[in-house]
């Protein structure tokens, strides 16, 4: 883990390394959950758009990044949506989003950390070392690959163990 300033020095970032891991596959629909055949993100998309977050430039799935032994603490999200009633199968949920940059093969991919509120999430619970990333499609990225991400320190705090 490393702390870094951008060129203007006004925003502080935390760099953290993690391993790409397989997830439940429900965000993208690859997990074959019959409740969400096209994926949860596609169902949630319009709810987020109505509240000012357009995810149309991103792949409709998440990259699961295990940052262990580190964990994270929510500070000030870029977006917070409360009580989103997006599914007939579960109660409304809250969602947090944070800025993220992922570095892979000399390229930088900008996106968001997607965090359904653990307080309102009923199933597909993530471990506290897992971050779900929404990014453009990244060719060649596969499970087991180690990548670095940069997080805005004012939005999300990384806790070293």
- What share of residues are in beta strands? 35-45%
Order of helices and strands: EEHEEEEEEEE
Instruction: Give the fraction of residues assigned to helices.
Output: under 10%
What can be said about the biggest beta sheet? 6 strands, antiparallel, barrel
Question: How far apart, in Å, are the first and last alpha carbons?
Answer: 11 Å
Radius of gyration: 15 Å
What structural class do the secondary elements suggest? Answer: mainly beta
* Shape verdict: globular
How many beta-strand runs? 10
Residue windows where pLDDT falls under 50 for at least 5 positions:
3-8
Q: Count every helix, treating DSSP H or I runs of 4 or more residues as helices.
A: 1
Side-by-side strand order of the widest sheet = 2-3-8-7-6-9
